[in-house]
Amino acid sequence: MEIDIQAMAKRDRYLLMTNMIVPRPIAWVTSMAADGTLNAAPFSFFNVMSATPPVLGISVGDWKDTVRNITETREYVVHIVPEEMAEAMNITAIEFPPGESELPHAGLTTFPSRKIRVPGIAQSPIHIECRYRDMIKLAADGEENYWVMGDVVHVHIDDAVWENGRIRYDLLKPLGRLGGSWYTRIGEETLLQMKRIRYADWKEGKVPDRASEKA
Ligand SMILES: Cc1cc2nc3c(=O)[nH]c(=O)nc-3n(C[C@H](O)[C@H](O)[C@H](O)COP(=O)(O)O)c2cc1C
Q1: Which of its termini does the chain have fewer beta carbons within 10 Å around, N or C?
Q2: CA of 4 to the centre of ligand 1 (A)
C-alpha cells in the first residue's frame, strides 16, 4: 500500500496517523481557567521533548479549554493514566462547556501540587507539575494544532508504584493509546527487557539475549 498523505481527506489522514504511531502515552492534563474552574482532559499527541531541560510536549487540535487555560494561567499538571482509571479518563474527554469541571463527573478528586497552584488528580499515581514554556502553531487546510511545551518543575510519584528508584510498570499499568477507540495495557506479561549494545561489543559479536524480567 502506497499512501499519498497530502491527497487524503483530513479525517482519513487523522485515522492513518493515529493508527500508525502506536502505542502513544497519554498525558492526562489538569489546568485552571482564569475564573478558577479546574479542567481535566487526555492528550495522546504527547511525549517527553527533552530530559535536560525537562520538557514535555502535547499537541492540541483547536483552541480547546486546555490550551486556553495553559496560555492564560501558565501552569498545569500532566498525569499518567493507570489502566484502572481508563473509564474516568474517557469521561474527562467529553466536551464539557467552559466553566464546568470534568473532575466531579468522572468521580475524581484533587491532590495539591507542590510548586504550582493547579492541583493534580488524586487517583493518578504520577503527577508532573509543569510551567508553560512555548507554543508552536501547526496549521493547514483550515485545521489548527497547538504544540504546547512545558517545563517540568516538580514530580510526585505514589510510593505504591516506586521501588529502588524506579517505577514498577507492572504496578503502574499505564494505559497506551492506539488508533480509533483502541487502547493497550502494560502488565507483567507484556514487558520485554532488551539492553543497549555498545559498538565494541557488537564488533566482537556480543549481542545480549532478550531478557524479560520484573520491571
Ligand atoms: C485517549 C484520548 C486521547 C486524546 N488525545 C488528544 C490529543 O492528543 N489532542 C487533542 O486535541 N485531543 C485529544 N483528545 C480529545 C480531547 O481529550 C477532548 O477534545 C477534550 O474534551 C479536550 O478537553 P478541553 O476542551 O477541556 O481541553 C483525546 C481524547 C482521548 C480519549
Answers
A1: N
A2: 26
Residue type present at position 34: A
Is the shortest distance between the CB of 93 and ligand 1 below 6 Å?
A: yes
142-158 residue pLDDT tens: 999 999 999 999 999 99
- Pick the atom of ligand 1 nearest to 62's CA: 11
The finding on whether 29 has its CB within 6 A of some atom of ligand 1 is no
Q: Domains, the chain, ranges and CATH?
A: 5-189 (2.30.110.10)
Say if pTM beats, i.e. exceeds, 0.90.
yes
**Is the Cα dihedral 40, 46, 48, 50 positive or negative?**
negative
Residues with Cβ within 8 Å of 72's Cβ and at least 6 positions away in sequence, in order, are: 33, 34
pLDDT in tens, 128-143: 999 999 999 999 999 9
